[in-house]
Amino acid sequence: MEALRQVDGRAIPFGAKNVDTDVIIPSHWLKTITRDGLGKGAFETLRKDPDNLFDSAEYAGSPILIAGDNFGCGSSREHAAWALLDLGIKAVIAPSFSDIFSGNAFKNGILTVVLPQEQVDRLLEVARTDPVHIDLENQVVTTPFQDRFPFEIDPFRKHCLLEGLDEVGLTLARDAAITRYENEARERLPFLAQGVEAA
Question: Range of 149's domain?
């Protein structure tokens, strides 16, 4: 997982409420055995409209999505986070998120920023013409117009995102402690080591 400290650039001013994971990535995309290419299926139904925001040249490569309340509701499919990541989204700003989606996003290195509706409305307005800046270290969203919106984030999630640590990375970071524990366990409980060797 890549470390994430700041996210800068144009933001897609989506704003829709109650967007479920089936809208983010339709179920027929779940058959894939790889994460690559899921961005093509992201918001597939909405992208059938030739004037959709996701295929607009104006927002091409935008790393930020601004959404409405209850983003990521519905099924628990992790493919939704994979699709957003493959689409190039590194952060989503909304008034609220489904807990499961928020967890999946975090595990895949996507920052979810919760802000009050009036601040989200302001960012939707700014995003139509100008970039948005998210500073994770200082926990603030800013715009070129001196808007400054602080946000809260769980300290553990913040640490993992700043350091680029997913579940595997967290385990590897404890490698020395795990090895020490295993060595001490073999000394204390030699019959366990013998049982493992015999197996």
Answer: 6-192
Backbone angles phi, psi at 6, to 5 degrees: -140, 150
Q: Is residue 198 part of a domain?
A: no
199 falls within a domain: no
Backbone torsions φ then ψ of 94, nearest 5 degrees: -160, 165
CATH at residue 109: 3.20.19.10
Any idea of the CA torsion for 115, 121, 126, 129, to the nearest 10 degrees? 130
Side chain identity, residue 27: S
Residue 177 domain-assigned (yes or no)? yes
Q: Could you tell me the pTM of the whole model?
A: 0.87
The length of the chain, given as a count of residues: 199
Nearest CA to 108 out of 136, 76, 81 is that of 81
pLDDT (tens digit, 9 = 90+) per residue, 34-52? 888 999 999 999 999 999 9
Q: Token pair of 26, please?
A: 């339709």
3-state SS class at 51? coil
Per the structure, how many domains does the chain have?
A: 1
Contacts of 42 (CB under 8 A, 6+ apart): 24, 25, 54, 83, 84, 86, 87
